[in-house]
Amino acid sequence: MKVAIIKYNAGNVCSIYNAINRLGIEPIITDNSEQILTADKIIFPGVGEASSAMQYLKQHNLDSVIKDLKQPLLGICLGMQLLCRFSEENNTPCLGIFNQDIKKFTSSNKIPQIGWNSIDTLSSELFKGINNNEYVYFVHSYYAEISENTIAATDYGIKYSSALQKGNFYATQFHPEKSGFIGSKIIENFINL
Amino acid sequence: MLTKRIIPCLDVKDGKTVKGINFKEIKDVGDPVELGKLYAEFGADELVFLDITATHEKRKTLSTLVERIAKNINIPFTVGGGISSIDDVSILLQSGADKISINSAAVRNPQLITNLANRFGSQCVVLAIDTKFDNNDWYVYLNGGRIKTDIKAYDWAKEATEKGAGEILLTSMNHDGTKQGFAIDITKKISTNVNVPVIASGGAGTMEHFYDVFTDGNADAALAASIFHYKEIGIPQLKEFLKQRNISIRI
Q1: Known catalytic membership, residue B11
Q2: Range of the domain at A78
Q3: Taking the domain B5-244, which CATH number applies?
Q4: What φ, ψ does residue A36 adopt, rounded to 5°?
Q5: Kind and range of the H or E element at A26?
């Protein structure tokens, strides 16, 4: 099993590397197109800001590499948002895998949302063996609305998509690598797809 | 619904936890990694490691420790203690820390908060405030509580969040170590008026104290050290207690 973690300028990849490593797999961290294209599973992590991340991806031709992937990819946090069409964060056009936009929370709740919140209406093999209303760890100020791609939903003032899927593209707004046992199970499910 | 967080704090010196610890299940009671793992298994929502080493060698020791923690722990963790530059933070984040907490250095140079937030994102910048009530108000103290400033804690919290702090860790020196409960008034004042999460710290002695700081104090998270280390309160027991009282909590 060859797992590639896409390396770019958004956040550190330590946690996701360690999480996969705990499953007994040694992932590679790379921005090399060839290595990404030949991996069995691809992780697209991300903590940071949308426009500078998109700029970096384009400069390194990683935008088209990602769009062309046929094997399972898991976007995490900013990684998920970049897979959408457009982000309100600095009005950034994104990759457009998911035909929907990323909006900023406007509720009276604190922003960013930081902490453990529950996921429900789970509907994907990504959540095999996981019950509705389990808790996972979130850190974000922007969100994806509920859509036909929604495979998990969460409530933070409004109900939004905490995970999306379209074909081979999977994505979670939360951090499975920081979500204890439940998170490990989700990563394991992805690796076993 | 977003849950309230329970956060054990571990004081680390030269790579070992300092306070005497009562956990008999683990072999090396001084090993912060083992303790952290145990807390994570017990249901801690997050961990804070506070480095109190005072030597120049500390950065190396600390980053090695952070790497070990990151390899073994699957919940978020924050590292604090003597952090004063972008380089300090960069090393810790690269080693696997999720957040860093800054204290005295941010008071001396508030621009540091903005620089760190721009570089690494607000979500990993926790502003720690040590505060004490005297002369009818809450004032900020530096260097582990040894130096008083004329800055009011509430003003500093407002300014720091405007500068980019993503979270506030508020410790009341009047309450710390007393086990008489958290500082409800200042916690509430700050938590209600800033738009970032506030972690209350100092004074936890009973499970009711946590209930009070989450309800009356409006805290988003509560941090404690000795009551967990000495097993006076178990984390699962505390979480069950809070859940039964309708506090949103992760079990």
Answers
A1: yes
A2: 3-191
A3: 3.20.20.70
A4: -70, -45
A5: none
